[in-house]
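Why predict the complex rather than its parts? Because the way molecules touch one another can change local conformation, and only a joint prediction can capture that. The input here totals 874 residues.
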Amino acid sequence: MKRSVVVVLLLSLVFALDAQTAKEEIFSDVHRSGGTYYAYPGPENAKLTPAPAGYHPFYISTYQRHGARFFLDKNDYANPFNTLKKADKLGKLTDLGKKVMHDLGSMLTLLEGRNGELAPLGVVQHAEVAKRMFTNFPEVFKGDAKIEARSTTVIRCILSMMNACLQLKAMNPNLTVKSDASIHDKYYMNSGYKEISALRKAPKVQAFMKKFDEAHTHPARLMGTLFTDRDYVKDSVNSGRFMRRLFTATSNIQSHSDQTTIDLYPIFTKQECYDLWTKNNLRWYIRYGPSPLTQSAMPFNQSRLLENILTTADTCVVNKGNGATMRFGHDTYILPLAALLELGDCGKVITDPDLVANEWRNYKIFMMASNIQLVFYRQLGNPDILVKALLNEHEVTLPVKTDVAPYYHWKDLSSYYRNKLAKFKSNFNWAQSDKSN
Amino acid sequence: MKRSVVVVLLLSLVFALDAQTAKEEIFSDVHRSGGTYYAYPGPENAKLTPAPAGYHPFYISTYQRHGARFFLDKNDYANPFNTLKKADKLGKLTDLGKKVMHDLGSMLTLLEGRNGELAPLGVVQHAEVAKRMFTNFPEVFKGDAKIEARSTTVIRCILSMMNACLQLKAMNPNLTVKSDASIHDKYYMNSGYKEISALRKAPKVQAFMKKFDEAHTHPARLMGTLFTDRDYVKDSVNSGRFMRRLFTATSNIQSHSDQTTIDLYPIFTKQECYDLWTKNNLRWYIRYGPSPLTQSAMPFNQSRLLENILTTADTCVVNKGNGATMRFGHDTYILPLAALLELGDCGKVITDPDLVANEWRNYKIFMMASNIQLVFYRQLGNPDILVKALLNEHEVTLPVKTDVAPYYHWKDLSSYYRNKLAKFKSNFNWAQSDKSN
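Output of the joint prediction:
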């Protein structure tokens, strides 16, 4: 009797945690508001459900984003830095404003010559993801397991791949690792369809996002803390744009938490972080997610990636061996892929933009070093293959019925996905017949 | 008595082998005529001299060229292919000409989308070099050895680095591997000085090379085997250029020996291969080697690379640990570096161009996956560090006196190199004061 009470209490706690709003989650860890800049902390409270009796994992198929990285463009620091520097020359900065200027200057120095590169933290992240993958599914990596590793041709992805593979090799030196990073694989690793991508450029979509951005940017308080002269700000600073740029710079600094003690989050209130995140989150939902504003077509930009996952899995299911196919890429591919796969809530179509923040949260999907793992299980003498999906190492639901959740029958799932792709292909209004760019 | 006769006979044999001319070496293995395209077969008959008593290796510093690769430019196959195709349409090809055309067509297909990429053979080459490095010097890689691996930002070099490191990690999972491939390191990894590079563009140098090229290209026999119509060849084919291009294509195919059975060497006589090699060899000697025609200045283009080697070695000598600094780059850097280090005959200044072929042979220096290893030794309680140099895994001489050859005293060697660099810097006619490009 006592034990069941404890179980009920614990379950309530779990549901309470699950039921946190985005605002609560961001208020409890403001780094989440970074969205695409959120530095993957590893899975939190992740429990893995044991496989049905007699089933063993033998194959993992992944898409993984590179780890923490340096900014792609030095202007991401330089723009807000220059705004502050100009004001400083005119004596218009508060002490806090001066401190922020110096901090941005230090970040610019750290970035020098390293634009877009994998940060030291990114190396650690990928080694840790690989280590947990091996530890969680040792049967996949045992003996003479074969690892097919593929990266886009972007160096931060290649080095992410290298560090993941080094970790696996250290845990089983007999692993065979075949790696590549070739334009040859671009068509599925990091590509899309121009007809689909064009949807996000529609004037209606642009106007909507601009309006939403402005409605969720409230710079007055922040300006008052950084600048001494309200009239100067009014006349000489584009406050909304400056605040958004400063927030982006702030968000990225978490990728360098092992290189610097600089932290600009304290200059924002948690509410401001939440507000700025909501507009970024919606922007990603519209531009890369299943938003009806872009005809819920964006996820299908990753049709070839899904086809590659289906085809390689079918090949590996037929083969007797064990191993993994690991793909290393970018946010703009892993996010639509998660939606296309309908992992958990990733594919949810939400009409009311104000509801998106609570029903679809980008920081759960595509942070630095984020990863999707499809884990395949088989039973001796049984042709029925099971699969389960991990999104950032948490079990998630898949879009077909199952009697063994969170495990799904591969034959059901693969035919669901193939039908889904075929239906979209025949229904979508393609401008060109070859469907490629 | 008998034994000493055998020893004398064996020694004579060794000296006879050593005394082979370039022509004899190329006639015994025509792949050597590929020069920069020569696919590193691993060390042949390499014997490593045991260290003086009490000395143990603790650090290795390398510069390694990427492994076998696909052509950088599809025109390297397409140009000779198109010459043959045009002739074929006019019915001007022999059966052999048609076969060569089809073979080049197949190579073009193999290359599709893979320009400049590491070939499968390159992966194997780097794993094997790393394996031998570990096996030859296990004390360097034991325990918690630290590997600092650096690559240029070119993907074939990064993947070469990855495969070398995977091999080392498999042999000692406790190794720490720190890797990078950043523009940040370009100044020493793959860079030069514009004032030095400009020397090779001097009209006198260009004219000399053109004349030498033409004097060593004899296309008449080959043309007769590929084309049916001598007048057509005379009117419509630039025979010398065509032959040189066909030879380049032929040379590169050895990088794909595990992917194709195509081999175009049989269409050339060995003498033709040797002739074409002599002109390529001299070209490399003048453009990247210590040729007096380019003021013997070319090796100094790699001054910063040598400075990096000296400085990192000095740091590692001071540290108590063991490990390696491994650098992965290109032919145009490893060749001048070998000359600057004066490894064996690499730095030899030869005035008579006809003597270069026998005294300086590029296929001994910078083939695919070629490597320079400086191996450092220490003795407990003795500050005198010894070093020996391996060029493609063969022991070579270094430019200072020693009482323990092939081991050299690091203090003598490093001060020799530092003086050499300082002297060149102060004597060379720099157009600009900052000495960088």
